[in-house]
Amino acid sequence: MNISSARQYFYQEIQQPDECIDLARAALYIAQEEYPDLDPEEYINSLDTMATELEERLPAERYPLRIIQAINQYLYSDLGFAGNKQEYYDPRNSYLNDVIDRRLGIPITLAVIYLEIARRIDFAMVGIGMPGHFLIRPDISDIEIFVDTFNKGEILFPQDCQEKLTQIYQHPVTLQPEFLAAVTNKQILARILTNLKYIYLNKQELEKALAAVERILLLFPGFALEVRDRGLLCYQLGRFSQAANDLETYLVKTPEAQDAYMIRRLLTQLGRG
């Protein structure tokens, strides 16, 4: 498997209507660029097996809280999944195959596993893109309970989410309704890729950071900030024609951006001023 094939499979998967995207499969195609020998079917089968084993452990009365407790017992106590608090920024935490193999992850990838297993037992759940900490919840309109997959499936209520936000930002944060809104499959995949982008930027692995940005733009082609970042990364990598095209596009999209002056200076250096 080469990188272009993995990218092509990812692109094909995300061309479907959002609700039809196989979240685990798309996440595995992200990982396949890092691990060319990865066989997605092996990990899809692992998720299928987990769901089958969980089904045998479910309570006779399938109330939402009882089901969540059963999933938590199975994933965290029986299988030993956990949030990687010691090495949060290890890129392996963002690759679904590694998370399944190592039983360690961050909120977004542990949430993908939880969501995929819940889907397989016909217990619909959705992702919640709370700032700074990804959560999930049952897809039931009149139940306001949230699950923190990073903390062994801890059950949270809106007030708990408010307190968690305050802890994350270290000052009081007002909980806005949009903080607890459900997100799409594409938004979940973009969040995984955004994590990888910043991990690789911090490690100065610019080719890998660029690969993450390129796939975010496959998900959301018009995202101006990612177009800008692709241009800046291409500039650093010496791909000046692509850099100039992206930076010009960024200025057309956001002519009043705060960094517009800096971008114009860069374009002047590239002979496009």
Q: Which H/E pattern describes the elements?
A: HHHHEHEHEEEEHHHHHH
Total strands: 6
Strand order of the largest sheet: 1-2
Model regions low in confidence, pLDDT < 50 over at least 5 residues:
none
Please summarize the sheet with the most strands. Answer: 2 strands, parallel
Rounded Rg: 20 Å
Return the domain count: 2
Kindly state the mean pLDDT as a whole number? 96
Structural class: mainly alpha
The first-to-last residue Cα distance is 41 Å
By CATH, the topology of the largest domain is C8orf32 fold
What does the secondary structure layout of this molecule look like, with pairings?
Elements: H1 3-14, H2 23-34, H3 40-55, H4 64-78, E1 82-83, H5 96-102, E2 104-105, H6 107-120, E3 125-128, E4 135-138, E5 146-148, E6 154-156, H7 158-169, H8 185-202, H9 206-219, H10 224-236, H11 240-253, H12 260-269
Parallel strand pairs: 1-2
Antiparallel strand pairs: 3-4, 5-6
Helix pairs in contact: 1-2, 2-3, 2-8, 3-6, 8-9, 9-10, 10-11, 11-12
